[in-house]
């Protein structure tokens, strides 16, 4: 500058016009050169410092690489050493390793900052990138190990919580199971609630058990021995509790089902009882005539038949209720059963009592009507005949033969009256019994009985009077000697008859024959009573003989006295004989009556029991068979007791025919033999019936056992089916459900022999029983068979549905895992892509590649989104078949995947927008830079043009300066567009200025 300044001074004189301009220009140029020198010195100093910093950076990078390699080796060795240790120790080792790597992380971060600040070259940056990759890989290894351990810890923590919850559930379940076996309930609805709560609680326990087992399988690889043992103990305890809960549930199901059937049967019996009670007449008969009695008896027979028809069902209901009350305590149910039994018993007793009363009344009434009509008719006839004899006794004297005929006829009438006394007694006895039984029409009956009794009394009162009058008429016409002669003749005749009857009476057999002889001798007694009047009259006639007659007939007196004495003696003898015969015959008649009544009673009893035994062959239900067995045993005991009575009858019969001829005693012997044979036959029948009933009872017992077995099987299977249906909360639960249903189906197929056994036993009973029991057995067999087939079909359908649900669960889980894996892969690629985009070293030409990769990744995310849509459809199908908690978990998992995928998509789209904006800016910058380069070329061409430096023309110089200034302004605008940084402007300005300075120089 000094040299040039001197040159300028020499070239331009001091007084020259351009001297000041030149000095100013040279001063300005000197200032700019000083400034440029200062800048160059500063830049050199900076370059030296930068070089030292780069060397330090490279040294630190090498040291950090060595330290990272050493740390990686030591870390991997330490992790390998603690691999078999508990998870807590492994996590502690990982934590220590991470703490040790924090310094390396800080060093790498520091190197990155220094590298960014120093703007080091690409090889160094690559080394730093490799170091970062090594660190990231190591941290990824540690993170993966920590993630796995954390996942194991989370699983273990989840398992421990599940195990503790299961233990709590087990404790509560044991408390529930340890309660009193006899429940106190008030209704079957309460039992239904208990059953629902029981199912709900223990289904939750089973589901939690399945969850705990599933979690344990996930941690079994790193579980210690004590945990495995504890798990096995808790699972065994849970299985035992579930087994007991299943048994209790079946009991509750049995109680509920039995109670339901019991209520239905009770309602049916009560309806039947109401029908019977409403059919029982509230008032008695207004008129107890034979027709009314028959109608009322028919009604009560129908009511009794209706009650008897439902009697077995009542016994069954009461027996079922009694067995039900063993398991539960329900005062209302007990009261209902007692009330039903009492009402049924009262109605049965009322109907039976009234029916017996009506039948007795009808029997007595029929007998009374028949006998009273006959007696009344006879009494009227006797009254008429008595009036006739009375008139005859007071009429004018008649011929002796006529009077004698009248007296003989009247004696026959007296004998007829004596024979009718038994009929009169029967009528009065039957009438009095009717008075005790009848509730209406008693006054008329009592009046009628009184009238009959009065007629009979009048008859008996008038007979002796009429007899005396007729006898008096006879005596008036019959001399005493002649009378004595007739009496003696009659006595002789009677003696002959008595003597003749002596042997016949000894050989007389039977009540009828003895009664005939008794009636004959009672007739003799009546004849004697009548003849007694003759005897008395003859004896009195002796006192009435006058003295004159005595003196005139003294010789006849002696003869008359002798005849009279002989007559009186014979008379007394005859009276004694007749009285003795009557007494003997009455004794024989009583003995024969007792014997024949006993024989007839025994025969009647045998016939009745034989009919009962034949009726017992009509086998009924089990209760009827049990009652029949009891009756048969009682009858057998009675038959054994009757043997002694038969022997006693035999003794009496043999005593009665003792010393009698064989031809007359054969009938009695035959009767006795027949009686013994009948007893033996009846005893044999009872024995056979007992064997039959015992066999049928055994068949009924087998039927009851088979019925209980098949019903228990059906009940337990149905309860199991209802319980298994609740296991839908997870894939594992559904798998357990499928296994349980398969086992249930297999068990039912094995237990089908129970149904076959029930069918066989029922068919055997059908051969022994009679309607309506056969109809009930057939209906029960059909019902059980239908229930069995329906259950098999239901189990098969449920198994098929459960398998379909299991497949759906499996598809959902597999597809969910596939989708989660896809999301995870896309998340990894997204992180890598975003990491690459976030790097400051990304080259301009790599941006387009990044955008292309981003588009590919977004298309991959779209594919995963389509997969999530399919997963959503599977989830919707699954949610319709699972419980609320499982549906919520499915929805939560799907929502998490969708949100994660959406977040990845949003991050990629955002970064893509940023990079695309950068590409657009880069393209704009490139265009501006090209324009700037064109301008520089143009500027260089202008600067290369000849400057008017040697020209003294100021205007020419000023024009040149203005052109250069305009070009500088243009350069500033171009640089502002291409690089808006102020430093670029300054540098470009100095470049342009230096170029201009050189050009000026």
Write a brief caption for the model.
This is Nesprin-1. It contains 24 helices and 2 strands. The protein is mainly α and 1001 residues long.
Features:
single chain; 1001 residues; mainly alpha; two-stranded parallel ribbon; 24 helices; 2 strands; 0% strand; rod-shaped; disordered C terminus
Instruction: Estimate the helix proportion, in percent.
Output: over 70%
* Main sheet specs: 2 strands, parallel
First-residue to last-residue Cα separation: 10 Å
The residue-averaged pLDDT reads 84
Protein name: Nesprin-1
GO cellular component, one term: nuclear membrane
Subcellular location: Nucleus membrane
Keywords: Coiled coil, Membrane, Nucleus, Phosphoprotein, Repeat
Give structural notes:
The protein has 1001 residues and is an all-alpha fold. It has a domain at 42-179. The protein has helices spanning 2-11, 19-81, 87-118, 122-177, 188-219, 225-279, 290-327, 331-393, 400-419, 421-437, 442-477, 480-506, 511-543, 547-552, 554-616, 622-656, 662-724, 731-750, 752-768, 773-838, 844-879, 884-944, 954-978, 982-1000, and strands spanning 183-184, 328-329. A two-stranded parallel ribbon has the order 1-2. Helix 4 (122-177) runs antiparallel to helix 5, helix 9 (400-419) crosses helix 13 (511-543) and helix 11 packs across helix 13.
List the helices and strands and how they pair.
Blueprint: H1 2-11, H2 19-81, H3 87-118, H4 122-177, E1 183-184, H5 188-219, H6 225-279, H7 290-327, E2 328-329, H8 331-393, H9 400-419, H10 421-437, H11 442-477, H12 480-506, H13 511-543, H14 547-552, H15 554-616, H16 622-656, H17 662-724, H18 731-750, H19 752-768, H20 773-838, H21 844-879, H22 884-944, H23 954-978, H24 982-1000
Parallel strand pairs: 1-2
Helix pairs in contact: 2-3, 2-4, 3-4, 4-5, 4-6, 5-6, 6-7, 6-8, 6-17, 7-8, 8-9, 8-10, 8-11, 9-11, 9-13, 10-11, 11-13, 12-13, 12-15, 13-15, 15-16, 15-17, 16-17, 17-18, 17-19, 17-20, 18-20, 19-20, 20-21, 20-22, 21-22, 22-23, 23-24
């Amino acid at each position: 500058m000094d040299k040039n300044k001197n040159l300028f001074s020499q070239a331009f004189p001091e007084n020259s016009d351009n001297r000041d301009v030149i000095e100013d220009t040279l001063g300005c140029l000197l200032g700019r050169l000083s400034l440029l020198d200062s800048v160059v010195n500063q830049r050199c100093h900076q370059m030296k410092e930068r070089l030292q910093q780069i060397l330090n950076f490279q040294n630190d990078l090498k040291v950090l690489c060595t330290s990272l390699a050493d740390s990686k080796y030591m870390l991997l060795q330490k992790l390998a050493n603690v691999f078999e240790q508990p998870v807590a120790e492994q996590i502690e080792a990982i934590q220590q390793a991470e703490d040790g790597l924090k310094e390396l992380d800080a060093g790498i971060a520091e190197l990155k900052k220094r590298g960014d600040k120093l703007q080091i070259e690409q090889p160094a940056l690559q080394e730093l990138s490799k170091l970062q990759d090594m660190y990231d890989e190591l941290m990824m290894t540690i993170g993966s190990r920590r993630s796995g351990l954390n996942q194991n810890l989370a699983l273990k923590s989840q398992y421990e919580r599940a195990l503790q919850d299961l233990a709590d559930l087990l404790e509560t379940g044991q408390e529930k199971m340890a309660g009193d076996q006899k429940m106190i309930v008030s209704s079957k609805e309460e039992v239904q609630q208990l059953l629902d709560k029981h199912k709900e609680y223990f289904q939750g326990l089973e589901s939690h058990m399945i969850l705990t087992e599933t979690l344990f399988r996930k941690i079994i690889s790193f579980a210690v021995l004590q945990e495995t043992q504890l798990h096995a103990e808790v699972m065994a305890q849970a299985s035992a509790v579930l087994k007991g809960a299943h048994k209790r549930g079946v009991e509750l199901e049995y109680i509920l089902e039995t109670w339901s059937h019991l209520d239905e049967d009770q309602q049916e019996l009560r309806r039947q009882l109401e029908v019977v009670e409403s059919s029982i007449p509230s008032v008695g008969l207004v008129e107890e005539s034979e027709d009314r009695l028959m109608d009322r008896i028919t009604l009560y027979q129908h009511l009794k038949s209706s009650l008897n028809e439902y009697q077995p069902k009542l016994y069954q209901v009461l027996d079922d209720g009694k067995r039900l009350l063993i398991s539960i305590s329900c005062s209302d149910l007990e009261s209902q059963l007692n009330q039903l039994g009492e009402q049924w018993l009262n109605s049965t007793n009322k109907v039976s009592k009234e029916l017996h009363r009506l039948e007795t009344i009808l029997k007595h009434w029929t007998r009374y009507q028949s006998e009273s009509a006959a007696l009344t008719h006879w009494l009227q006839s006797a009254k008429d005949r008595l009036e006739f004899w009375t008139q005859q006794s007071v009429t004018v004297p008649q011929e002796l033969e006529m009077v004698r005929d009248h007296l003989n006829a009247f004696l026959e009438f007296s004998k007829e009256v004596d024979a009718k006394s038994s009929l009169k007694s029967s009528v009065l006895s039957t009438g009095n019994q009717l008075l005790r039984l009848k509730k209406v029409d008693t006054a008329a009956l009592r009046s009628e009985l009184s009238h009959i009794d009065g007629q009979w009394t009048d008859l008996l009162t008038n007979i002796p009077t009429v007899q005396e009058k007729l006898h008096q008429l006879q005596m008036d016409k019959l001399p005493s000697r002649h009378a004595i002669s007739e009496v003696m003749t009659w006595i002789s005749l009677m003696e002959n008859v008595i003597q003749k009857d002596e042997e016949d009476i000894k050989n007389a057999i039977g009540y009828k024959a003895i009664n005939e002889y008794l009636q004959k001798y009672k007739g003799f007694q009546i004849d004697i009573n009548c003849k007694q009047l003759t005897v008395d009259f003859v004896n009195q006639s002796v006192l009435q003989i006058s003295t004159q007659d005595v003196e005139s007939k003294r010789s006849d007196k002696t003869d008359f006295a002798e005849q009279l004495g002989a007559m009186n003696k014979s008379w007394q003898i005859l009276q004694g004989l007749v009285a003795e015969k009557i007494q003997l015959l009455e004794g024989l008649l009583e003995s024969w009556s007792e014997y024949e009544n006993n024989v007839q009673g025994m025969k009647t009893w045998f016939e009745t029991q034989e009919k009962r035994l034949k009726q017992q062959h009509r086998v009924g239900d089990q209760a009827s068979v049990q009652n029949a067995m009891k009756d048969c045993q009682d009858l057998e005991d009675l038959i054994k007791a009757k043997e002694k009575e038969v022997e006693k009858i035999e003794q009496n019969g043999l005593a009665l025919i003792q010393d009698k001829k064989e031809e007359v005693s054969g009938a009695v012997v035959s009767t006795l033999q027949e009686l013994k044979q009948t007893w033996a036959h009846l005893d044999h029948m009872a024995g056979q019936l007992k064997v039959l009933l015992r066999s049928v009872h055994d068949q009924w017992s087998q039927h009851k056992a088979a019925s209980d077995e098949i019903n228990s099987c059906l009940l337990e299977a149905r309860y199991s089916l209802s319980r298994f249906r609740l296991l839908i909360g997870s894939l594992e639960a559904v798998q357990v459900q499928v296994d349980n249903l398969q086992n249930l189906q297999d068990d039912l197929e094995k237990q089908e022999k129970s149904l076959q056994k029930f069918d066989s036993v029922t068919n055997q009973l059908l051969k022994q029983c009679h309607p309506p029991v056969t109809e009930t057995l057939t209906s029960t067999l059909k019902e059980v068979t239908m229930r069995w087939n329906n259950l098999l079909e239901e189990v098969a359908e449920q198994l098929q549905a459960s398998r379909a649900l299991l497949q759906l669960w499996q598809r959902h889980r597999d597809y969910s895992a596939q989708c989660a894996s896809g999301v995870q892969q896309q998340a990894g690629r997204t992180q890598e892509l975003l990491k690459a985009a976030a790097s400051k070293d990304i080259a301009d030409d790599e941006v387009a590649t990044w955008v292309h990769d981003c588009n590919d990744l977004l298309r991959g995310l779209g594919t995963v989104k389509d997969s999530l849509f399919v997963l959503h459809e599977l989830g919707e199908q699954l949610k319709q078949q699972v419980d609320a908690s499982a549906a919520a978990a499915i929805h939560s998992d799907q929502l998490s995947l969708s949100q994660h995928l959406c977040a990845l998509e949003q991050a990629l789209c955002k970064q893509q927008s940023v990079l695309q904006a950068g590409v657009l800016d880069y393209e704009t910058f490139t265009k501006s830079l090209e324009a700037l380069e064109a301008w520089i070329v143009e500027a260089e061409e202008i600067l290369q043009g000849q400057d008017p430096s040697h020209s003294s023309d100021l205007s020419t110089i000023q024009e040149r300066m203005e052109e250069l200034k305009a070009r500088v302004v243009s350069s500033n605008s171009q640089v502002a567009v291409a690089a808006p940084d102020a430093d670029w402007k300054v540098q470009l300005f100095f470049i342009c200025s230096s170029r201009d300075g050189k050009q000026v120089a």
